[in-house]
Design goal:
The complex is a heterodimer of chains A (301) and B (141).
Chain A: H1 5-23, E1 37-38, E2 44-45, E3 63-74, E4 78-88, E5 92-102, H2 104-109, E6 116-129, E7 142-153, H3 158-163, E8 169-181, E9 186-195, E10 214-226, E11 229-236, E12 256-266, E13 269-277, E14 291-300
Antiparallel strand pairs in A: 1-2, 3-4, 3-14, 4-5, 5-6, 6-7, 7-8, 8-9, 9-10, 10-11, 11-12, 12-13, 13-14
Chain B: H1 2-22, H2 26-30, H3 33-50, H4 63-77, H5 89-92, H6 100-116, H7 121-132, H8 135-138
Helix pairs in contact in B: 3-4, 3-6, 6-7
Classes of the chains: A mainly beta (301), B mainly alpha (141).
Bound molecules: protoporphyrin IX containing FE.
Protoporphyrin IX containing FE binds at residues 54, 57-58, 61, 65-66, 69-70, 73, 86-87, 92-93, 96, 98, 102-103, 106, 131, 134, 138 of chain B.
Chain lengths: 301, 141
């Protein structure tokens, strides 16, 4: 890790802020909840997976911005995320996020007490076809392609990741299709993500067991209860590149799932709560399933 | 879990197909038939001319004609015994430079008007689904 990598994110955020404050419109026009919430990688979508919709309230011909804070609390770990998203012309989305993963007792058990894994994440998404919300008479979904670049600071764990053959930066490429079935009040999303990430990048990218890109499917379904309230479920298939490793099956990872409820008390605020099941995370130390809760708050303009 | 999602998907697919083919008037009834739609459109148009994001468009509009046309249009779309005799959506909105943002503003105002008449959210969405795709003819900016 060179020292500079610690600074690029704050610098970008500052530039972002100046740019958006200069340009964001006061009265952007998207329907409530149709800008999605922020995934843990920052990208607009569900909680765990990107959607094809462009984040923020900005509709065609407008630019918008949103900011979010998320805490995920599975049994033996904690993940905090902060990020910002900018949307342009309902076509292009840029996102920046910073993740801090507290390894708690696992770090201590590995001789690294207080170990935190940090990721800086940049996302770019472009809508390429369709109109998820208003094309209520066709089956054609909105389709977007995107990439998510992640830069991991693994602290004292870095030598271990090197030994496991896991790189400390990586890029996911994805294509998402989102469709609102308005007459049924149902929103569906499917995403295919090409990734090398281990535990979403927190344990690096690739490994000696499996070092190629794998294409993983992810699904979300949401039911709109009111114009300001939605419930839903997500399922994200993950690779398992560190299984087996020098630790045997001790770094096996599982698919991620959640059940969520999202509430937008105003056009500019969205609160999401979820029950998450992140499967096993470093079962060599914590063998139980990492179930827990997820809370996220978003403001968007 | 994956299987559950697939089942859900199938259920929605079938639900959508049957909703389209039956052509019944349950939506028309849910909106209180012609009388209910007339009251709803009266209120809706009042709200449209009060709403800062849409009012400018209606400066020179004959509002009582607009209410009648909208009532007939929604009555017909929802399966009621009416005939819409106004212009097609492309000609009616030609040259107005309606943007997506204004279109969404109108949808929001309609949602407020439907809320005020206590129309169930699921029925609101069934109606909006019949209208939303008109964006292709109405949005020209
Ligand atoms: C799904 C959405 C919409 C529907 C179903 C709709 C429907 C209609 C109908 C039935 C008429 C009457 C046509 C006639 O008299 O022959 C009309 C006229 C009009 N609409 Fe829309 N409309 C929609 C969206 C919009 C939007 C977004 C705006 C602008 C914000 C708008 C502005 C107008 C205006 C100003 C007129 C009056 C035109 C005139 O005075 O000649 N409409 N619309």
């Amino acid at each position: 890790m060179n020292g500079l990598s610690r600074y690029w994110l704050p610098v970008l955020v500052l530039g972002f802020g100046i740019f958006v404050i200069g340009g964001a419109q006061a009265d952007t026009g998207k329907l409530r909840l149709t800008g999605g919430v922020n995934s843990i990688d920052g990208v607009a979508g569900g909680g765990l997976t990107p959607w094809a919709i462009i984040g923020t309230n900005a509709s065609a011909g407008e630019r918008g911005v949103s900011a979010f804070a998320t805490r995920v609390k599975p049994k033996d770990y904690a993940l905090d995320v902060l990020g910002v998203v900018a949307g342009f012309n309902d076509r292009i989305e840029f996102s920046l996020a910073r993740q801090e993963f507290d390894t708690k007792a696992t770090g201590a058990a590995l001789g690294l007490p207080g170990l935190k894994l940090e990721q800086n994440i940049i996302g770019v998404k472009v809508k390429v076809a369709g109109e998820a919300i208003l094309d209520s008479d066709t089956w054609m979904p909105q389709i977007a392609v995107g990439l998510i670049y992640k830069d991991l600071d693994a602290g004292g764990l870095a030598p271990t990741l090197d030994a496991l053959g896991a790189k400390q930066h990586g890029t996911d490429f994805y294509v998402s299709a989102t469709k609102l079935l308005l007459a049924q009040s149902v929103l569906l999303n499917g995403t295919l993500r090409a990734t090398k990430a281990n535990q979403n990048g927190l344990l690096g990218f690739g490994g000696t067991a499996q070092n190629d890109y794998r294409v993983m499917p992810e699904f979300s379904v949401a039911y709109l209860l009111r114009k300001d309230l939605a419930i839903g479920a997500e399922y994200r298939v993950k690779p398992d590149n560190l299984n087996p490793s020098i630790l045997g099956a001790g770094l096996k990872e599982d698919d991620w799932k959640d059940l969520f409820i999202a509430w937008a008390p105003t056009k500019n605020v969205a609160l999401t709560a979820a029950y998450v099941d992140l499967g096993r995370i470093v079962p060599a130390i914590q063998s139980r399933k990492q179930t827990g809760w997820y809370l996220s708050a978003q403001v968007s303009f | 879990m994956t299987r559950l999602l697939i089942t859900l998907l199938l259920a929605f697919t079938l639900g959508q197909a049957s909703a389209q083919s039956t052509g019944n008037d349950s939506l028309y009834k849910a909106f209180g038939e012609k009388a209910g739609l007339t009251l709803l459109m009266d209120d809706f148009v009042q709200r449209l001319v009060a709403e800062p994001r849409t009012q400018a468009f209606f400066k020179n509009t004959d509002l009582s004609r607009l209410k009648t046309q909208l009532t007939d249009q929604l009555c017909m779309l929802s399966g009621g015994p009416c005939k819409y005799t106004g212009r097609d959506m492309k000609s009616a909105h030609m040259g107005m430079a309606v943007g997506k943002s204004e279109f969404n503003a109108l949808v929001e105002v309609l949602q407020e008007a439907m809320d005020a008449k206590n129309i169930a959210f699921t029925d609101q969405n069934r109606m909006l689904a019949l209208l939303a795709s008109m964006h292709r003819d109405i949005i020209t900016k």
